[in-house]
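Data availability (excerpt). The following record was deposited with the supplementary files.
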Amino acid sequence: MNRDIVTIGTSGGGIEALGALLGPLPPDLAAAIFVVIHRHEKGSDGLARVLGRVSALPVRAAEHGAPVERGVVVVAPADRHLLLADGHVELSHGPRENNCRPAVDPLFRSAARAYGPRVIGVVLTGALDDGTGGLFAIKRRGGLTVVQDPATAAFAGMPTSARDNVAVDHVVSLRDMPDLIARLTREELAAPDGPPGRGEEEIDLDPQTARSGPGAAEAELDALGEPSSLTCPECHGALWELTREQPLRFRCRVGHAFTASILEEQHVAEREAALWAAVRNLHENARLCERMAERFRKRNNERNAQHFADKALLAQRQAAVLRAMLADD
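Predicted structure:
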């Protein structure tokens, strides 16, 4: 048996990188290829057509229930996770990961769970650290891991994170990657060293077919990490810190998941939104106090007029402080 499942994850600069990788692959490649590129949830599903123009292999948009076929490239559609089960493709509108759907990590983890050492995981150009956790799962299950040399990537974040957090098997330039993938798919699989360690891929259950309720989900999360004091930005439920995963990841019982760096970015965005809302509130409060002061002056009630004038001035000063904080952030 050979390594006949190739999973590819990419983000910024990904269309060009995918074209450069898929174009030189031989038409008789003895492996099925599955691609996730992060994009807007309402984006067009014309990506398969675009890649099909440069690939000698047929390129198709993923369809739920379609069989896994060697020599075919399957691309995740917009707003659906692309998952692999034993022998077929599944599409899921499940929880977003790292604020994305489709996301790279669910594809990688599902491939690792279903096909183990038969999988070759590939991380290409992209920002932040998406794909690292999934690549870690592929490695844990005996698969091979390939990362684009960050020096050759349009966006170095994803390949740099993968290289630094996973014992990657190959770090190569995009130019050398097609020959490497073709060679790796021809190699015979060696016998596994032993049973794989338990990881996040074990708890990736479709909510409609889950074995049990929230209590069991918490027990499964407890087995992989520990409850944190943080809450999920998506559903506001409790987050577990997954201590067995690389890089540091957090996941709620619903299934929303974040790397630490992306969760921190989410906190920064929420904090900025909250501060701007406070600035708006203070400006509105100052304007209201000014109007009240004006009305009291017309009634010759100078005491109350001065009281609201002072409150208006305080609100303006507080708004100025927050604006300065936002400018320095």
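Summary of structural features: The chain is about 40% helix and 20% strand.
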